[in-house]
Amino acid sequence: MINVFQPSLGTEELAAVSEVFESGWLGHGPRTKAFEAAFAEHLGVQPEGVIFLNSCTAGLFISTELLDLGEDDEVVLPSVSFVAAANAVAATGARPVFCDVDPRTLNPRRSDVESAITDRTKAVLLLHYGGYPGEITEIAEMCRERGIPLIEDSACAVASSVDGRVAGSFGDMAMWSFDAMKILSTGDGGMLHVRDPELARRARRLAYHGLEQSSGFAKARVSHRWWELDVRDFARRVIGNDLTAAIGQVQLRRMPEFVQRRKEIVDCYDAELADVDGLVLPPPLPAGHESSYYFYWVQMAASIRDQVAADLYEAGVYTTFRYPPLHRVPAYGAPAELELPGVDHASDTTLCLPLHQGLDDSEVREVVTQVRKAVESRS
């Protein structure tokens, strides 16, 4: 089966893990700090505000906690988003308010976000769909004008940028995913960036039991009774560790080659699928935009999309749709009469094809052949 996602791990990552084994320090330690610093350099931000966690989801939950949301508050987010984003909002007692998206890019436009804002809006939580930055510049400007905090869910956008500015550096908070399906993978893991220094310090406490000091060993240098507790927040343990951080440092160094290979595959899909009747390819990137090329999505008539996916699966090509619309999930309590035409069109017509740096040329050709065959036979 040709998979949609697949990590690329090799001898460099194994050697880095071996070094951690030899050091005897497996938990949150010097390699974690080094990974945070390297990622901060990648973002162009201060390392004090960058925190390595056990998942991107942990970053989403911490970000909503930092905003001190309550039951009278609302957070605007696109309905085409991962379930963790809506969960992080709903868990605080606040209400997720779902906005529409551009049916082609699957990213919200400024007008989509603006139309969902009310006097109860306490934040906007934006996703960069498939690595496309979308209208992040315009939405960030709008949030600044209105004094509304902006959270960037950059799980898909580890190497995306607009005019040289990295996705995740436009808002007040941002998080990235390093799970097994992502471009940069540590197995599980995520990074959180918090712009405000005081909130960043609180985020670190929230990531480790609410403790002011995450390590008694480090505290021993400044306290004669280093085992005593200093709890500032009631929190959990979601910090990263040196084993996964060591893998992450290697993956971060290799990331440019990963993205380049993914772009080559995207260029091949663009060229080889352009003439397939009934198939719509992703729109071109606007000038100044760079993508991480996390998803490659095609669109077709809703009447054939599901059958095309089934035909491809039978032919050994696994496809999927990310992400099913959240406003259709009863648990979030979206009004039954809510109309999001862009979301509805995209979710009924879109299919994500295999795209990862491990695909070889023969597999890419096989995907092209099978997609062409499946769409033409069903149209």
UniProtKB/TrEMBL annotation:
Keywords: Aminotransferase, Pyridoxal phosphate, Transferase
GO terms assigned for molecular function: transaminase activity
Cofactor annotation: pyridoxal 5'-phosphate
Pfam family, one: DegT_DnrJ_EryC1
Family the UniProt entry places it in: Belongs to the DegT/DnrJ/EryC1 family.
Matching PANTHER family: DTDP-4-AMINO-4,6-DIDEOXYGALACTOSE TRANSAMINASE, TRANSAMINASE
Protein known as: DegT/DnrJ/EryC1/StrS family aminotransferase
Organism: Saccharopolyspora oryzae
